[in-house]
Give the backbone structure.
Amino acid sequence: MKNVVVYTSSTCPYCTMAKNHLKEKGVDYVEKNVSTDNEARKELMAMGHMGVPVILIDGEEIVGFDKDKIDALLGA
């Protein structure tokens, strides 16, 4: 199973799309909401990002909801 982390915010429609896509694929993931989790916000900024979603799949970063890249990294 891949290690998947999704950085989100409460008001981000692309975050919702990304989470729904992962659920449809049956992929377990850890959600880190930068709106409510200050530590998650610091982690995201330390990676050099200010926007969400940022998806990590086994350490590979995907910025934004890039369905094709998500599927490629998941081997789907």
The chain is about 40% helix and 20% strand. The two ends are 12 Å apart (CA to CA).
